[in-house]
Specification:
The protein is α+β, with helices and mostly antiparallel strands and about 280 residues long. The protein contains four helices and 17 strands. It has a 17-stranded mixed β-sheet that branches.
Amino acid sequence: MDGIAFIKMHGLGNDFVIIDARSEPLEISAEAARRIANRRTGVGCDQLIVLGKPRNRDAQAFMAIRNADGGASAACGNATRCVAALLMNESGNDEAVIETEAGILLGSGGDGGVTVDMGEPGLKWNQVPLADKADTLALDLDAGALGPAVACSMGNPHATFFVDNIEAVDIRAIGPRLELHALFPERANIGFAQVLDRDHIRLRVWERGAGLTPACATGSCAAVVGGIRRKLLDRRVRCTLDGGELTIEWRKEDNHVLMTGPVSAAFTGLLNPSLVTP
């Protein structure tokens, strides 16, 4: 059967359809992304990843990201680890250089999984971005007993609430409302973190355009950055998510956030061209 080759991968259950279009450019519309992401009539995924030729000569690929609802995203940490693993396997090297809309990301492999240098977090209100000037350390989202959130950008916008009991939070009810809050012109990922120790948190994230996923790597980065800013956490933290664990380190010496975790390949296949074309 003729079709478009893809590989299905996941990071802690956060799953992706990845298409390598470096040799033959491929434009995927929002509608096509929704069809591919549909878990009943398509392949099914949280995000669709298309690899293209990089604009930066130092990079091996440009990574374009669409959420399950068809919306574009500049960053996805779990997908970056998956792509880094593919590129390292392809080159035989233990490092990968990936170009994204959020900038150049560096991946490396080791016994502990794949590590991605996510760069510096954006802590200013206009970096998140927010619609109006506000304190990103105590962001008022009218969330009642949850109190103020901590906001930052990890290449995409995040707001994190620190809660006493994460199991008591109705994330499926709160997440969609806050994702669309007027303060977020690009919508936002909404995280809920419970501090278990200074080096360990329990985290769940309502992802914009994808809903409640088993794991959100950029959300983990944002939560750790927020916890450190509030003096709740140390610089290296284990994040327990529904799908497994990530290790996040916010280095003091260069302000970069490092994210480490596993990746898995599920299967390969061919997309029916009708899923891509109108």
